[in-house]
Amino acid sequence: MTTALNTPVRLLPAAPEDLRAHLARYGPAPYRNQPGALIADVEASGLTGRGGAAFPVHRKLAAVARAGVRQGRTVVVANGAESEPASHKDELLLQFAPNLVLDGLQLAVEAVGATEAHLYLHRAPGPQILRALAERAARGLDRLAVTITQAPPRFLAGQETAVVNRLGGGPALPTFQPPRVSERGLGGAPTLVQNVETLAHLALIARYGPRWFRAVGTAAEPGSMLTTIYGPDGTAHVREAAIGTPLRALLADGAIDGADVGDGIQAWLVGGYHGTWLPMPGAAERTLDGKSGVLAALPSSRCGLTEAARVTRYLAAESAGQCGPCLNGLPRIAAALAELAGSGHRRQTLDDLKRWSGPQNLVEGRGACHHPDGTVRFVRSALVVFEPEISRHARGICSATDRRPFLPLPPGMPTREEDWT
Amino acid sequence: MAETLRVNPIQCSGHGVCAELLPELVTLDEWGYPVIDPGPVPPVLDRDARRAVSACPALALRLVSR
Amino acid sequence: MNTAFWYASRATGIVALLLLTAVLVLGILVNRQGRLPGLPRFAVTDLHRNLSLLSVAFIVVHVLTAVLDTYVHIPLASAVVPFASGYERLWLGLGAISLDIMLAMIVTSLLRGRLNRILWRAVHLLAYASWPVAFAHSIGSSKDLQQGWMLGLAVACAMIVAAAVIWRLAHAARQVPRARRVAAIFAQHRTGQVTR
Predict the structure, then answer these.
(1) Is domain A19-214 classified as CATH 3.30.465.10?
(2) What counts of helices (H) and strands (E) characterise chain A?
(3) Chains contacting C (3 or more CB pairs within 8 Å)
(4) Is B57 within 8 Å of C46 when comparing Cβ atoms?
């Protein structure tokens, strides 16, 4: 695992580490026996969630801790569902540094006074996680036993309320908030759902303090983060970098820049399938922020419009189908985009598409979760960045020389209730 | 005591009763689902808003205090 | 006086049956988002709710006049305690069962915001039991309804209810399960259909 120039190595060791190596490097998790102290440190560190929403972690911890005092029990969930198909950083973190994540989980347990701890995973637990749990149990390192649950392979499976729904025995479908899961979550108890990378950072902040954490990154979003980068050759690389690093610097990593691909990069997708397309060359100056967990460099040889249509179709298929605007809007948006990506389209289609994804909130903000919002953000930016390509397709021309699919998408679509459990 | 109108989109099945009773704050989209004014409910519409909340057959509408 | 009570009980009973028939059909209409010609959507919901309260009002008079009529002894409690009446034990018992269900439906509906949704729905579905039981009570305890045009009226009510229930069941059978809804919208778009 090579790392690029000038990026900190905080989370990912060179090779997967077992408990012995972990303890040799970091020592045991520093329980405070005074939970408020850790929350204060997390606040001072400015840690934001690394699951994509970038919400201040200390506020979640404090909310759950407060609600827990009233209720007498709380739950902590380490969210490793990583439902974004293009993201691999959580999977890698769990493989290379499972003990950092598990330390973070136990420290969060202490901080909120939890009575129940869960690890929610995208796939069946790998050998490293299982070994880590067994080794820790043998040494009596953990305050609470951790229950592992596998998430269904759905895009929404990692959404906070869907996580709680699934862990409660239901399908991994979002539920309406209020109440927030931090108030009433699993089994009615205040529940902390935190991304596994966030917990890993927490484990380091507990050891090295907020000032150490702030030594890299920006004032608004301190620290480092993991990001999955797709170079123009289509291969994925997980990198750790300081927040605020320009994309240009990430591209300077020899493994990623794909200089031998020949032609240039036409656009970057920043933030995964709920993210934003940015045209080159401006995109290279964009800096890494808490919402840039997935970055993809689309080479000029591909058709951006076709890629956008493929992803939108996937996003529509992954709708929970619970809310009228999302259920009705997303498949129609996907079908319209597919028509634009074909050869020639009806005038009405482009008008419809602009109306549905426009600022009149026909789809955005009208669901129980942010799936319609994220999808519309993705589509809107695609309509802007690939506007020249839309015009070409309208005349029956596609500028792509390489018609292979670029962005990774799982096959098939969910059609039965069991697909959500 | 500012209140806003909110819909639970999972419970909402597009009956459209709210839009009839409170057209000043609720319109229906092309699929029959409510588009709700996100601002506070003006005091003069308070009674109508409460009536709309009560009349929703799916009990999907609610008034929340900010 | 007794005769007046007796006639009042018979009359209010029949009107209650007609009202309950309307309430059940309106309830199905609300669920199916149906409209009454010339009336706004909220009218269906409001009529359903208001007529259900009116029905209970008629039933209260129906019960009270029957109790006050001393020609036969009907204890007041038998209105809600099934089979507690010596007179026409079975038929009046059915009336009590039906009324009990109606009262549960109304109380849970008035407290709807505070109750678990599933509980509310389960109680409300008992309407499909309450109406037939009320119907049996009506036919069994009323000589009026057992002959002539009144029998025809009662049968007409039963047929209307049956038709409405079949309509409701047909829709439930056609209903697309949640997991297939997106696929259904995709399919609609491909065939050029534009519906909700």
Answers:
(1) no
(2) 15, 9
(3) A, B
(4) no
Per the CB < 8 Å rule, is A366 touching B9?
Answer: yes
Residues 6+ apart with CB under 8 A from C50: none
User: CA C47 to CA A396: how far, in whole Å?
Assistant: 57
Q: Are B57 and B4 in contact (CB under 8 A)?
A: no
A59-69 pLDDT, tens digit each: 999 999 999 99
Cross-strand bridge partners of residue A150: A121
In chain A, residues with a C-beta closer than 8 Å to the C-beta of C183 are 317, 413, 415
Mean pLDDT lowest among A116-130, A359-373, C2-16: A359-373
Give the predicted TM-score (pTM) of the model.
0.93
CATH of the domain at B19: 3.30.70.20
Cβ of C117 within 8 Å of Cβ of B15? The answer is: no
With a CB cutoff of 8 Å and minimum separation 6, the contacts of C148 are none
SS3 label, residue A100: helix
Q: Tell me which residues of chain B have a pLDDT lower than 50.
A: none
Q: Is the CB of A176 less than 8 angstroms away from the CB of B9?
A: yes
A324 contact residues in B (CB cutoff 8 A): 9, 12-14, 31-33
Q: Select the more confidently predicted residue: A80 or C1.
A: A80
- C172, two tokens: 């439930």
CA distance C102 to chain B (A): 18
> Where does A224-299 sit in CATH, by number?
3.10.20.600
Query: What is the distance between the alpha carbons of residues A283 and C140, in angstroms, rounded to a whole number?
Result: 82
Q: For the residues of A120-185, what is the DSSP string, one character each?
A: EESSSPPHHHHHHHHHHHHHT--SS-EEEEEPPS-TTTTSHHHHHHHHTTS-S-----SSPTTTS-
| CATH for the A304-399 domain, from 1.20.1440.230, 3.40.50.2300, 3.30.1360.10, 1.10.274.10 | 1.20.1440.230
- Residue A327 with chain C: CB contacts under 8 Å: 181-182, 185
Question: Which of A410, A330, A382, A353 is closest to C186 using CA atoms?
Answer: A330
SS3 A397: coil
Q: What confidence tens digit (pLDDT) does each residue in C24-67 have? A: 999 999 999 999 999 999 999 999 999 999 999 999 999 999 99
The structural domain count of chain B equals 1
